[in-house]
Amino acid sequence: MRIWEKELANEKYVPVYIPLNEYNFVDGINCFIENYLKREYDIDIRKAEYNILMLLDGFNEITDRQYKAAKEINTLLIKYGSKLKIIITSRRERELHSLLDKIYSGSGSKDIAA
Questions:
Q1: How do 112-113 and 51-57 pair as beta strands?
Q2: CA distance linking residue 6 with residue 31, whole number of Å
Q3: Are 16 and 43 in contact (CB under 8 A)?
Q4: What's the CA gap between 11 and 59, in Å, rounded?
Q5: Bridge partner list, 79
Q6: d(CA 73, CA 4)
Q7: 98-109 confidence digits (pLDDT tens)
Q8: Which of these, 80, 60, 78, lies nearest to 69 by C-alpha position?
Q9: Handedness of CA 79, 84, 85, 86 (dihedral sign)
Q10: Which residues sit opposite 85 in a β-bridge?
Q11: Rounded CA gap, 106 and 77, in Å?
Q12: Strand order of the sheet with strand 84-88?
């Protein structure tokens, strides 16, 4: 059921929740976030005609792939920044600030919040 579709008439953002701890269990996938959107929400960000508000939860729960995750988030902002807003949560402030530095330096976008 896609209840959020009725909100599109008001040009609001479609909210999606992505638990980043699942990043630890995926092998060899380069587009974890895009694949998660497709699998769990039936959203193809490449073809979406609406804005997406993405909550990426638990950056600190990614064990050894934080750089890969930061690079993927950066790529998403570069490719889809005009229709994408991202909120990232983390229990460790230092890790989050390091991530934001990497993202800001690569994307030039400020449409990200922590």
A1: unpaired
A2: 28
A3: yes
A4: 29
A5: none
A6: 23
A7: 666 766 665 555
A8: 60
A9: negative
A10: 53
A11: 9
A12: 13-19, 51-57, 84-88, 112-113
In this structure, which amino acid lies at residue 105? S
Residue corresponding to tokens 């630890």: 24
H/E/C letters for each residue in the chain?
CCHHHHHHHHCCEEEEEEEHHHHHHCCCCCCHHHHHHHHHHCCCCCCCCCEEEEEEECHHHCCCCHHHHHHHHHHHHHHHHHHEEEEECCCCHHHHHHHHHHHHHHHCCCCEEC
Tens digit of each residue's pLDDT (9 = 90 or more) over 51-100 = 899 999 988 888 777 778 888 888 888 888 888 888 888 876 666 666 66
